[in-house]
Amino acid sequence: MATPGAAGAPDETWTIAQIADEFGVTHRAVRHYEDLGLISPRREGTRRIYRRRDRTRLALILRGRRLGFPLEEIRTIIDLYDLPRGKRSQLEYVLTQIDERRADLEQRRADLEAAIAELEAWEVSCRRDLEALG
Amino acid sequence: MATPGAAGAPDETWTIAQIADEFGVTHRAVRHYEDLGLISPRREGTRRIYRRRDRTRLALILRGRRLGFPLEEIRTIIDLYDLPRGKRSQLEYVLTQIDERRADLEQRRADLEAAIAELEAWEVSCRRDLEALG
DNA sequence: AGTCTGCTTTACGTTAACGTAAACGTCAAG
DNA sequence: CTTGACGTTTACGTTAACGTAAAGCAGACT
């Protein structure tokens, strides 16, 4: 679509404007993520070339951001994905990291559920008051 | 406990150090929330006096913060709690606000579930690799 | 009286996550 | 060949959410 070759080819590439547009962020933001080492697109001369792997990472970054994680923390998380997991010690390290992350996420989930439940109870009470008014 | 009167009395009060300590934040943070209008403790002379209502608000603030909401947004939310909900128009306004908030929270929940599911799948794959190593 | 502890205001400093110009390269179209 | 459209680096600006002095009051202890 963006480059020659069959649609959906595994070596499809995009420019910075294309992915920024597609993900709804600015080029500045994308370059910022690169400065912090969250993505590292290839270069064609001086131009940045984004591939599927970069898109995947960007999606992870944005989700992490929506969840309120600081970019530095997001970096350590997605870096874990690329860690060589051949040796036992590395696997065990990844597992402990996963546990930490999950504990964090579970805490967030608890907060979320509480907030949602509160909102719903509130809504019910509002609707009841409304009906009482005719 | 902190002031004369029976424990659990509805007019119990606390100093800034006490609530800051109890909620695990700094006095500076608490005063910052006040600067932004998120809490407004009574004064005894020049000293701030915190009551149950302030504690409730602080709890809401901190949960909002854990959820990654900006303080300004948190302010508009908890201000809604104190809105007079006598008239129909006010009730309807609150209901629309509740809907907006809930849509936001549902989005976050989706992100959260996705992240957790991903982590779990990853963990399974790691454990499988570990077993393969003996 | 002196000193400590706890609280106060005022105000500048800091970090994160970009925004926003400035100044320049480059390739295809007019 | 000049004009755009798009890309690049460098660097200062901005907002949020506090941190961190600095300097002073007020009641309790010694």
CATH architecture of the largest domain in chain A: Orthogonal Bundle
- Total domains of chain A: 2
Could you tell me which chain pair has the largest interface and how many residues each side has? A-B, 33 and 33 residues
Low-confidence stretches of chain A at least 5 residues in length (pLDDT < 50)? 1-7
Could you report the average pLDDT of chain A, rounded to the nearest whole number?
Answer: 91
Helix count of chain A? 5
Distance between the termini of chain A: 58 Å
Assembly state here?
Answer: homodimer
User: In terms of structural class, how would the helical and strand content of chain A be classed?
Assistant: mainly alpha
How many E-type strands of chain A?
Answer: 2
- Determine Rg of chain A (CA atoms, Å): 21 Å
Name the strands of the widest sheet of chain A in spatial order: 1-2
Which overall shape of chain A is indicated by the principal axes computed on the Cα atoms?
A: flat
* Major sheet description of chain A: 2 strands, antiparallel
Percent strand of chain A: under 5%
In which range does the helix fraction of chain A lie? 55-70%
Name of the CATH class of the largest domain in chain A:
Mainly Alpha
